[in-house]
What does this fold into?
Amino acid sequence: MTTINRRTLLAGAAATGALAATATVTAEDMIPATIDMTGKSVLITGCSSGFGRLAAVDFARKGAKVFATMRNLPRSEADELTALAAEENLDLQVMEIDVTSDEQVESGVAKALELTGGSLDVLINNAGTSYAGPLEIQDIEATQGLFDVNVFGPHRMARAVLPAMRKAKSGLIINVTSQLGRVIVPAYGQYSPTKFALEAMSEQLAYELVPHGIDVTIIEPGGYPTKIWKNSNDNTLKLLERAEEKHTSGYTALIEGLGQRSGGGSTDPMDVPNAMAEVISMVPGTRPLRREVHPGPKPQIAINKVSAEVQVGWLGESGYGPWIKAVHNV
It folds into this structure.
């Protein structure tokens, strides 16, 4: 007897209208498989440091074929990762992709697909950047730069991989956002607006991809001690150097200390790759839309719960109902 999970059933319903939206998830479908990535192909952006580098190495050690991408090759981080892969005999290839470049995204994904025979199991949009400071001092250069990396970059990458995933009728896109993609802290510049946008884009993609058997999961990390803090400080100091006094004069308290921020304390950044690995290992169609990751407070959980309830309550019995219910596993 063929076993069909709920996402498969609801995808068929969305396409044909033949199935009522009352299908249920079996307990068996909800049990994650053992985390063994043998045979999986995974492309990760932003692998020069932080979550991306950790995930690339960890997933390759778990047996995956990993395309670890970063910008501005050649660079020492790429050489170190390549040397580690050779030393441990890992199926890990470093590739150049600047997510702000249409040409590099297209060529990088095309190369990965060529090396896998035309299929890609997982795309992880991890590359991200940040500026700090009140919104008034965020000039257009900073704002456009943030949106180009944090929002348009994942969109470029998704568009590049989706034709092959749709052809295969399977795949997973993981987008890394933040707690600050659901809650607001003053003086974090355009970071929260970009992550809010990525949250919305990810959720819309999740609904639209149900008929194609492709899952989307949003990873929402809290603060971790990665290089994003140093990069943000560097960006912010450059922003302050070119900021005009007419904009900065009203925010003395919020500007004080900018360029010297750090965060994450003693938390373990491996929490994020571990959460990704668990999501990847789950039965397709049962993966969560959102996964909050942090050992401390996760204030977005309440928002995520209400948001899901509103979506199901609003559209659950509409023509989009099977897609909405499939994504929220109800």
